[in-house]
Amino acid sequence: MIAAVLGSGAWGTTFSAVLADSGCRVRLWGRDEIVAEQITTMRRNDKYLPGITLPAGVSGTTSARDALSGAKIVVVAIPSQSARAVLEPLAEYLDPDAVAVSLMKGVELGTDKRMSDVVAEALGIPLSRVAVVSGPNLAGEIAAHQPTATVVSSTDEATAALVAEACSCDYFRPYTNPDVVGVELCGAVKNIIALAVGIAQGQGMGYNTTATVITRGLVEITRLGLALGAQAETFAGLAGMGDLVATCASPSSRNHTLGRHIGQGKTLDEAIVATRGTAEAVKSSRSVLALARTVGVEMPITEAVVGVLHEGQSVTEMASKLLSRPRKTEGL
Ligand SMILES: NC(=O)C1=CN([C@@H]2O[C@H](COP(=O)(O)OP(=O)(O)OC[C@H]3O[C@@H](n4cnc5c(N)ncnc54)[C@H](O)[C@@H]3O)[C@@H](O)[C@H]2O)C=CC1
Ligand SMILES: O=C(CO)COP(=O)(O)O
């Protein structure tokens, strides 16, 4: 099976290695010539995955046409807000039977669409030929072959099964789940919650505050998901609780790291520079909040993150606003 991966950052490169270790021949496309050449000639991507040797089945290219030619699986691993613009001109090179896979954990600004919808629209294919992969999947750990599970989700069972088979190897175990809405929302919103945890920890808060934000964050994710038609079980699974815990706990999470910089007093611009790599919650916090408002769902932590990142609110104001909300019974 030939697979194309679009985006040679941390996750696109790591997922290429997973696909190759699962038996695929992988063409990894990126816009950076030096990265593409290093991937092909040295089997390394020092910019995004220092210290990792890639499997022989991965080659780099800057030609999207070459990458897509004959590829039966096309994986998209670029920042969510750039996906539509990058994919639209590539639709003409897509194999007529190809299945597209979104690895992205964001919601498009302006349209408030989930990434599977964006991918389907941009490539001009039905949702039955789109899958998403989401779970507790910190790239660096998977690149080092640490045992990890994930969720492959599609509205079409055969599409999910094809993708799951293509990314099954001795250190990576996919489970399928038909709840695309739930799986994608979990991935996008946990980044916002991890950013909030980072802010709290940057302010010197400990485990009680961390656990409070994680737990109420899961309530917030679940509330939004259920309002949009997701299945309740998804939130307790790998894409839900699993990814929330991994991202909120790991110092290697970019969203968590960016939040920590904000909590320590950096401006948003300074925090972006200090974080390096894509922290999707910076932009998706706004689109997720807009989505929540369209369905009348309260998301106080997301609202607080938007307030601090984009509306000039101080972290102290954010905390007191959250703590002074009217008392209520626990639960959704
Ligand atoms: N890194 C991780 O551990 C994981 C990341 N993800 C998700 O995967 C997606 C990609 O993340 P990473 O690979 O980690 O980001 P990254 O910051 O490591 O790499 C992003 C890549 O996209 C490329 N890129 C950016 N704008 C582009 C454009 N307009 N055209 C072409 N290429 C462009 C960059 O050059 C870079 O190669 C995000 O949605 C992220 O939330 C999901 C699971 C794990
Ligand atoms: O999605 C991830 C882990 O599952 C990666 O998180 P960050 O994007 O915050 O690094």
TrEMBL record:
Subcellular location: Cytoplasm
Pfam families: NAD_Gly3P_dh_C (PF07479), NAD_Gly3P_dh_N (PF01210)
Residues given in the record as NADPH binding sites: 11, 31, 48, 105, 139, 254, 280
Enzyme Commission identifier(s): 1.1.1.94
Catalytic activity: sn-glycerol 3-phosphate + NADP(+) = dihydroxyacetone phosphate + NADPH + H(+); sn-glycerol 3-phosphate + NAD(+) = dihydroxyacetone phosphate + NADH + H(+)
One GO term describing the cellular component: cytosol
Name assigned to this protein: Glycerol-3-phosphate dehydrogenase [NAD(P)+]
